Amino acid sequence: MKLIIVVVQWTDADPMMQALMDAGYSVTQISSAGGYLKEQNVTLMIGVCPDDIPKIKEIVQEFGHSRKKFVNPLMPLMGINGANEVQVGGATMFILPIHQFERLGYASDAHLLKEQSVGN
Ligand code: 2BA
Fold first, then answer.
1. Residue 28 β-bridge partners
2. Which of 12, 43, 59, 100 could form a disulfide with 30 if both were Cys (CB 3.0 to 4.6 A apart)?
């Protein structure tokens, strides 16, 4: 099993999350902010089987739009050439291994989920 973490622009988050849920995935959203622009964005956590990664990528690409944003000119961290515009997104995706996945208190299927999560 893998944990996919997606950092997405705030305006794209709801439709992306809805599409992921419509496709049958469980999603957790966390409010976050980019360290560079300090703008609010959204971090999505999705636990999936490795076979599902291409489908997740497809959805993230479809709903994560690229936009140009202006950097606050008062920021000390301007680009080397003084650039004051950056391209944000589509989306930033991390794919991490999960050593163990358990949903505690789900008596009927807990053992199946645990088995599914080991060794992938
Ligand atoms: P921010 O950190 O606010 O970055 C917004 C955009 O500013 C980035 O877009 C990138 O184009 C530019 N940028 C970021 N750091 C820069 C720097 N040191 N110098 C020049 N330009 C810089 P994205 O790459 O699409 O990233 C969008 C958001 O995704 C980021 O917002 C951050 O919240 C997250 N992110 C991106 N890469 C990450 C990483 N390696 N680790 C953790 N979070 C990341």
1. 45
2. 43
> Is ligand 1 within 6 A of the CB of residue 37?
yes
- Which tokens is 21 given? 């849920």
Q: How many residues does the chain have?
A: 120
pLDDT, one tens digit per residue, over 28-79 is 999 999 999 999 999 999 999 999 999 999 999 999 999 999 887 766 555 5
Q: Distance between CA 116 and CA 106 in Å, rounded?
A: 15
Q: Predicted confidence band at 115 (pLDDT cuts at 50, 70, 90)?
A: very low
- Give nearest CA residue, ligand 1 atom 9: 88
